[in-house]
């Protein structure tokens, strides 16, 4: 083969595209095709535009599905804000007595299941952080008792009062128990030798030592004693009062949309006990919302204007307190809806005039 033929063949080889070059060119071509394909480059519609076009029936395909999801989200959100239409809030409501009978029929075989109350309020979302409180039920709905750590030096009035209350609780058959101790109890708790506990009380004399040893443990759990919370006592009377509040009191708190949930009884409770607990829960929520959540001082008369101010007599001769027209109207400006349910039962919307 002559040198001229070899040179001609090499020129043809260099003129042909390499495999890598062909792959790169095909990739660039596919990218350009995707960028310039049908449906590319169109501006996305805003949620309001999608909802408007959905109401007019002008959407198809993926945009129709997206609009349907927006409608469902809006309906779910409005069910907790008190600004929904008739479809979100059904008109059929029940009295507390009828709702209790329905739930008892569902949970007849589970008498230890709890009645749960869901309260939809008008508290704005920017004030829900302070929407919390503590109440004492006429009949405690809890099954398990509290385990309270009482940090008090021996031979003090606070320690003696705590020991007396502990003996009274044991004699009454209560499942709540107190663990009383001083510096030795602080050391045992910091080393993890104390069993699980739910509440903590302390005297002012031991508060510095307790803060130094257990602040990082109790603080994140919300158990660190505080004077404002009433969990710091100095004498026997204050210790008894603090123990009573911890043993019988229940904390409640609203979520970010102003809905408050809590257990108000057991399936085995009578109607009178359940009604008393429901009214106590509602009164506590109304009083907290009426007292102001943004730091504004509200007079006592304004808070009392929401309370029950009329006495009525039932058929069995018992007397009960209810709200008059003015107090009822003010209470309904805070409480939008109340639902009663059970652990495994349905949720039933209650008639506000019956429970408020």
Automatic annotation (TrEMBL):
Organism: Malassezia pachydermatis
An MF annotation (GO) of this entry: structural constituent of ribosome
Record-linked Pfam families: Ribosomal_L1
InterPro entries the record matches: Ribosomal_uL1-like, Ribosomal_uL1/biogenesis, Ribosomal_uL1_3-a/b-sand
One GO cellular component term noted in the UniProt record for this chain: mitochondrial large ribosomal subunit
Protein name: 50s ribosomal protein l1
Taxonomic lineage: Eukaryota, Fungi, Dikarya, Basidiomycota, Ustilaginomycotina
Recorded superkingdom: Eukaryota
Keywords linked to the UniProt accession: Ribonucleoprotein, Ribosomal protein
Family from the record: Belongs to the universal ribosomal protein uL1 family.
Cited PANTHER family: 54S RIBOSOMAL PROTEIN L1, MITOCHONDRIAL, LARGE RIBOSOMAL SUBUNIT PROTEIN UL1M
